[in-house]
Amino acid sequence: MGSNPTLSAIFEYLNLTLLMDELPLDKIDESWGILLNAARQVRSVAYCPYSKFEVGASLLCGNGEIVTGANVENAAFGSTICAERSALVRANAMGFREFPRLVVSVRTESVAPCGSCRQMLHEFAAFSGVNMKILLHGERDDHIRLTSIAELLPHGFKL
Fold it and tell me: CB count, 10 Å around CB of 155?
């Protein structure tokens, strides 16, 4: 993007993140730390007997409330739900639809949301007009990754 000043200016004006930032874990502010602790805690209740890959997610809602979710696997793999969608569905059932921040936490190196999760996150971001900031955390990393839904899925599906 740096070679296209017009496009860079548009992204800056819209406050979109162009590149995923890596920061030392001890450099995140308290508000991200609270979300990270919630994601770490809920990760322990993930139901993942097949992959053994525990994922926890925490959403910051527009009103300041935090809603969490964990992955839930199923023998019929198509019925499996990721932690990010688990949190989204739970928040939606509580009447929340604006989410400025999301944290995804795993025990391995950090991972980004899958395609289905990206699409659902994109739809809620588009609905609310908020470019959701996303923190990716892995227990084996000494850093976190900061990104946004606009970076992870710049041209999401719309009807």
Answer: 7
**58: domain CATH number?**
3.40.140.10
The share of the chain scoring above pLDDT 70, in percent, equals: 88
Distance from C-alpha of 23 to C-alpha of 119, rounded to nearest angstrom: 26
| Amino acid at site 122 | H
Q: Which domain holds residue 134?
A: 19-152
Catalytically annotated residue among 84, 98, 109, 151: 84
CA 25 to CA 22: how far, in whole Å? 9
For residue 81, give the DSSP letter.
B
pLDDT for residue 19: 66
How many domains in the chain?
A: 1
84 is catalytic: yes
